[in-house]
């Protein structure tokens, strides 16, 4: 049960003060009954709420998949750069979703956003062993000894030893390689720093899957969609 004015405020119908005025004008019905008390306790998942003749579509949580574009920051706010939240339609940003983990500013690909804090924690915590798969282009030839180093746990420039990771070589030439990297953690600039420890540089990086959720091929960079009920259930089952 929640206060009616809190429910409507969270859904973008106005401030608590504005909603109090709307209610006083008789514009709000609960299960067909006109209400006058903005502090009324309501179960929004069981009661039918009508505001100004339109039924309220109540959802406590929202789950989004974005194909993050280059140059956009994985944050809810930034003084200088555009953030992934800035790309959201007001119908979605009103829920105050936040990125699940982060992608570097110049990294593209699959980014989840939600206001479900419990799910966010489970997905980014290494103890839950959630795979994150990246496609990367490297400036030099990637060899089997690099694969073994990733499997053993690469040591970064600050002395941190990464958890074992899988490195798959897709193409390997002297002047550059294409690979996939599977991680279960997300340290700052981790993929880039892992290759730097091997004397190589990442020139392009894209996350292509998170858990068993693959980036929707229909999403252009900067586009997003809501997750399907099946996708949400899959993430919650982890």
Q: Which helices and strands, and how do they pair?
A:
Elements: E1 2-3, H1 4-10, H2 16-24, E2 28-30, E3 33-34, E4 41-42, E5 49-51, E6 54-55, E7 63-68, H3 90-93, E8 98-99, E9 108-114, H4 117-124, E10 132-138, H5 144-152, E11 166-173, E12 176-183, H6 190-196, E13 202-210, E14 213-214, E15 224-226, H7 229-236
Parallel strand pairs: 9-13
Antiparallel strand pairs: 1-4, 2-3, 2-5, 5-6, 7-9, 7-15, 8-9, 10-12, 10-13, 11-12, 13-14
Give your account of this protein's structure:
With 238 residues, the protein is an alpha+beta fold. 22% of the residues lie in helices and 28% in strands. It has 3 domains: 2-55, Structural Genomics Hypothetical 15.5 Kd Protein In mrcA-pckA Intergenic Region, Chain A (Roll); 63-126 and 213-236, Alpha-Beta Plaits; 131-210, Alpha-Beta Plaits (2-Layer Sandwich), CATH 3.30.70.1560. The chain has helices spanning 4-10, 16-24, 90-93, 117-124, 144-152, 190-196, 229-236; strands at residues 2-3, 28-30, 33-34, 41-42, 49-51, 54-55, 63-68, 98-99, 108-114, 132-138, 166-173, 176-183, 202-210, 213-214, 224-226. Strand 2 (28-30) and strand 3 (33-34) form a beta hairpin. It starts with a strand and ends with a helix.
């Amino acid at each position: 049960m929640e206060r009616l004015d809190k429910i409507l405020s969270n859904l973008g119908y106005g401030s608590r003060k504005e909603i109090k005025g709307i209610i006083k004008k008789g514009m709000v019905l609960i299960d067909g009954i006109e209400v006058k008390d903005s502090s009324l306790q309501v179960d929004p998942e069981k009661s039918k709420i009508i505001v100004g003749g339109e039924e309220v579509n109540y959802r406590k949580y929202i789950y989004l998949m974005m194909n993050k574009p280059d140059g956009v920051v994985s944050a809810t706010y930034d003084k200088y750069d555009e953030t992934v939240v800035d790309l959201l339609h007001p119908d979605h940003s009103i829920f105050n979703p936040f990125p699940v983990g982060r992608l570097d500013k110049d990294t593209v690909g699959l980014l989840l956003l939600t206001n479900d804090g419990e799910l966010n924690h489970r997905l980014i915590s290494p103890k839950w062993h959630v795979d994150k798969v990246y496609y990367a282009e490297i400036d030099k030839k990637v060899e089997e000894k690099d694969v073994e180093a990733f499997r053993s746990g690469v040591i970064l420039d600050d002395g941190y030893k990464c958890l074992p990771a899988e490195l798959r070589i897709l193409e390997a030439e002297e002047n550059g390689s294409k690979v996939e990297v599977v991680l279960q953690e997300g340290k700052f600039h981790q993929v880039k720093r892992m290759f730097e420890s091997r004397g190589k540089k990442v020139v392009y990086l894209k996350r292509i899957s998170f858990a068993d959720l693959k980036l929707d091929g229909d999403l252009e960079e900067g586009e997003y969609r809501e997750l399907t009920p099946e996708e949400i259930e899959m993430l919650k089952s982890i």
